[in-house]
Structure formats: structure tokens, C-alpha cells
Amino acid sequence: MAHFFITGSTGQVGAFVAKELLEKGHRLSLLVRGPKAQDRIQNVFNTIGVTSSNYEVWEGDLFSLPFPINGIDCILHSAAELSFDPSQKEKVWHTNFEGTKNILAWAHQSKIPSFHYVSTAYIAGNYEGTYNEESLDFGQTFRNEYEKSKLFTEKMCREFCQKQGINLAVYRPGIIMGTSSGKSLHYQGYYIFLKVLSELYEKYHTKENPQENIYCMEGKLHLPIRIEANAQGKKHLVFLDYVAKAISTILLEARTTSQTLYLLPTHPPTNQQTLEWVEKALGLCGLSLVSSLEGKTLNRLERLVHHYIHVYKNYLEKEPDFEYHKSVDTLSSLGVLCPSLDNACFERWIVYGKKDRWGRKEKEEKNKEIPLQNLYFQKFLPLFLDKPFLSGKVTCNFAVCLKEDSHGFWKLTLQQGILKALESTKSQEGLDFWYTLSQEVFHEIIAGKLDPRYAFFSGKTDILGDMEHGLKVATVLREFFQKNPWQQPS
User: Fold this and answer.
1) What integer best gives the mean pLDDT of the chain?
2) CA 319, 182, 307 angle in degrees (round to 5)?
3) Containing H/E element for 203?
4) CATH superfamily of domain region 3-179+235-266+319-337
5) Is residue 331 a contact partner of residue 474, using CB atoms and an 8 Å limit?
6) What digits encode the pLDDT tens for the residues 409-457?
7) What does R_g of the chain's alpha carbons equal in angstroms?
């Protein structure tokens, strides 16, 4: 049996590849960030149904690697920072480029003969021609720093492995969704679109509003929402289990062969087709794709949807022209076939996402007192009472609820941007909206390290009540957190 070292094993790809390898009896060494690395990976493995214990956990990250380990046959490097948020540029390059550079050096020191790197199909950026397995750097521009960082990281992997005589396999997946049965660990990217429409359905299917053209018709909820997109543009959505099966198969069958493989659907649907599937799966109608909304007045629902999906807007306008028949032939010869997308796939993804509350299930330990929350709301924020708190002269009542805390909300009252009141409450009465998030995410936000808006877009935070108002306030909250970052007392 082979011995594999995996980074990113708590992420979608790493976890499911690990499951495939463990089920075949192989030995794994897993690099997992702390604290409580063992508990973190165990929770993930419990979720996806891993029963084997033939693995060891190394607590650390790409910059705190263990001493060189003997006897490893291959590294699968799937850890990455996936943010499209411009404010996260430094973190994206630090993790994706510098982190990979570090683990490549470690692989060389450990005398590991084979390095498998999870890249992305979107290193093609805005390239106008056909992009295939041999394509790399044509001087193309990019939609975001994530794409650019992955291209330069892939180039670095190729140069390093060629110089050091390490066999290199590169995987270029498309937009990874859940498994063919619907299961998912994370709800980013295209999932944001499914989530916001699902939550709009839950809010309005028993609460029609004819004044806004929201009504039920023949068993479907009509929502008047125009979405700026190229209706005939391709959408390269792929199943998570297909990606995991393809990678694990290549790891086992061709560990000593350098190659590049696209992991994309054989027949990618159009944006129009996927929209029709989403409508059918959710019981919606009234959605439409338009080439441009420039100069047009958006209704309230349209503003809300565009708030959520604006980070991914470029992916609705144009997709690269991929040519990947070599990858399809290689995987087909190994018995790995990409299942076809259809309406039922979207139904399963949505059903599972709703059941999992789009990744925001309540944590088991609810009754612990949260010192961080108490310190922040009882000691720090009171320093800003009756002082300018938020720019834009915001007036509202909103609250913050940490998932681990059973004591209720911390309610903030703002009048023309002045913090007028701060109190602990268990009642939602009088709140315009409230944020629900984990202590970990809360700490990142108040320390000025995580943009509150991106936390919503990436599914790390939930907004209940008036979502549109909550997103607007998040924009000015970001400014406050950056000017007044929290540092926990030592």
C-alpha cells in the first residue's frame, strides 16, 4: 500500500480524495491547521463517512511543516486560499504561492518522488483563444487575484519539479459543486446563488407581495429578478465525487507520470439551462438573464441578489474556451466518467444545502460562556457609546449572535451613525436584522482581518431579517473594524 501526504484535507477536494484512498487501504499523513487538528479532521471524516483510521495527523500549516518524513510516495497539495475578495490579495498570494513554494522545498528535502497539485481551470483568465492541457501563460488578464496566483503557482511547480526531477501531476477542476448525491462540506462560489434564491423562496412562498410583483402562480413563486449574464455562456460545474475519484485514480495509477488533467463536465450546460434547473428545483419562476443592467433601475430583490453574487459576476459573463479531450480520454480509459448534469442534480444540492442550513448548523456546545464576546461587548464597544460609530449616518437596530452562545443577542442601536445603546437581549423584537456567525469568524472580523461582506458572500455569516439593510451596514462596519481592530488582552 502507498503512503500519501495530503494538504487541505479538511477542504472539499482533500477530504474526499482522502476518503477514496483510505477506502482502498492506503496510509495517509494529513497536514491540518490547529488548534485541535485531530478533532477538526475527525469531524470532517465523520460528516463524509470515513471509517478507516489508517492516517496520522500533523498539526501545522504550509509555513510550519513537520520535519522531513521518510517513506512518502506522493504529496497531494490541495490547500489553497479561494477568496475572490480584493482585500484578501495578500492572503491569497501568501497561501497559494508562498505556501506552495514552501511545501515544494519540503518535498525535495523529504525525497518525495511525486508531487500532485490542485490548480484550477480558470488560470486561463480572460484568454480569448482555446485553452488546453499544454496552455499556460499567454500574458492573459484575470478576473481576480485567485486566478492569477494559481497560474503563477502552477508555473512555479513546473519549473521546480523539472529542475529537481520530481514527477508532477496538475489537476485543473472547474466550479466544484457537491457530490452526485448532493453532499457538500462548503457552500461558496455558485452555491451563493442557490442559497440566496432558496432563502428568498422560504421568505416569500407563504407571504406574497403583489405590490412588488411577488406572487404564487400554478404552484410556483414568482420573483421578478433580472440577472446580468450571458445566457448562452457555458457553466463548467463538476461533481465533487467525480473530482475526488479522478484525482485518487491518477494518484494510484500514474504516480510516476507527469501530466496535466482538466476535470470538467463533458457537456457543460449554458447559464440559461442552469437557471431553468434552479427555478425548477426551487419552485420559482420570474427569473431572467439579461445581457446588461447598466443604466436600469433595480428592484429591491434584484439589489439583494446582486449584493450576494457581485463577486462572481464575471463568471456569468464569459467562460474560457477549454479544449480537454485528452483529459477525458485518459480518465475514460481508467473508468472515470463525469456524470451528466440535470435538474435532479440541482434538486439534490439544494435539498442537502437546506438540510445543512448552508453550512451553518448549530454547534453542540451552546451553553459555554464566550469570554471573547463578553470582553468585546462589555469592555470594548462601550468606549464608543454616544460617539460617531459608523459613517453614512446609519440609523437602525441590529444584533450579533455567536453560534456558540446560548445567552441571546448583543443589540446595537444606531442613530445617524452614533452608537446610542448596547445591550444583551434574548428578544428579536425591534431588530431590523441580525448577524449569526461563529466565534472564530467573529474574531477575524473584529480584528480587521476579514471583510464582513465577504464573510456573508462566502457563507461564513448569516443575515436574518432585512438582508439588504444588513449588507449595507456591513459595508460601513468594515471601515470601523479596520480603523479600530480588536486585540485580545494577553
Assistant:
1) 91
2) 50
3) helix 190-204
4) NAD(P)-binding Rossmann-like Domain (3.40.50.720)
5) no
6) 899 999 998 999 998 888 888 899 999 998 889 999 999 999 998 888 8
7) 23
